[in-house]
Structures are given as structure tokens and as C-alpha cells.
Design brief:
Blueprint: E1 11-12, H1 17-32, H2 39-62, E2 70-71, H3 72-88, H4 92-97, H5 110-115
Parallel strand pairs: 1-2
Helix pairs in contact: 1-2
Length: 116
């Protein structure tokens, strides 16, 4: 879930309300453990998203930096290049397990412990 929460500070153009709300929604989903809340919990989660979005907007508006702004297109291109590099050069663990190699809890399993 949290992989979708993006850094929103120091970008040109600045973060939009939709981006802030999307990050707030992901944060509340992670905290609550719900991706689709029940009708009984919907109001509480909607209120939490509104409050987190408000706090996030206040935070972003108050942050200062001397660093030059980052450009979304450039950062997106860097991310795509990193993803392509990862898929073109899998880790040794990924080759052995047949997986992505990004899940360390898969490296040790009960079956491997019994065979050792």
C-alpha cells in the first residue's frame, strides 16, 4: 500500500490537492488496515483522510529548502530507468528463488530450515 505514497515536497510544479489527498488516503489505509472500509467505518476514514490531507498541506506550505526544485518528469524518468535496471539485472536471490528478491522474509522458510 505505502509504495504509492510519493514525496511531495520541493517539486515544480508544486503538489496538487489531488496528489496530497491520494497520499493521505494511502496513509490512512495503511494505518487502518482497510482498503475498502465497511459502511460503519466509512465516515471515520473519510474524516481521517480529510484531516491528514489538511495537515499534509500545512506541512508542505511551511517547509523551506535551499535545494533547487525537482522536476516531476525528470524524477519519473529516473524511476523508470531504475525499474528497468532492476528487471534487467535481477539480484542473485531473485535468480535462486524465482522471485523479485525484494522480500527478505522469503529468504528463510521452514522448509529450508528442515533441509539444513
Amino acid at each position: 500500500m505505502c509504495r504509492n505514497i510519493k514525496t511531495l515536497h520541493n517539486f515544480k510544479p508544486p503538489a496538487t490537492e489531488d496528489e496530497i489527498r491520494a497520499s493521505s488516503l494511502q496513509f490512512v489505509r495503511k494505518l487502518s488496515g482497510f482498503t475498502q472500509p465497511s459502511k460503519a467505518n466509512q465516515l471515520a476514514l473519510d474524516r481521517a483522510v480529510d484531516q491528514v490531507a489538511s495537515a499534509a498541506r500545512e506541512l508542505l506550505d511551511s517547509l523551506v529548502t535551499n535545494a533547487p526544485p525537482r522536476y516531476r518528469e525528470v524524477e519519473a524518468a529516473k524511476a523508470r530507468a531504475r525499474a528497468a535496471d532492476r528487471s534487467a539485472h535481477p539480484t542473485p536471490d531473485a535468480l535462486l528463488s524465482g522471485g523479485s528478491g525484494s522480500a527478505p522474509w522469503r529468504r528463510y522458510s521452514a522448509s529450508s530450515a528442515r533441509s539444513a
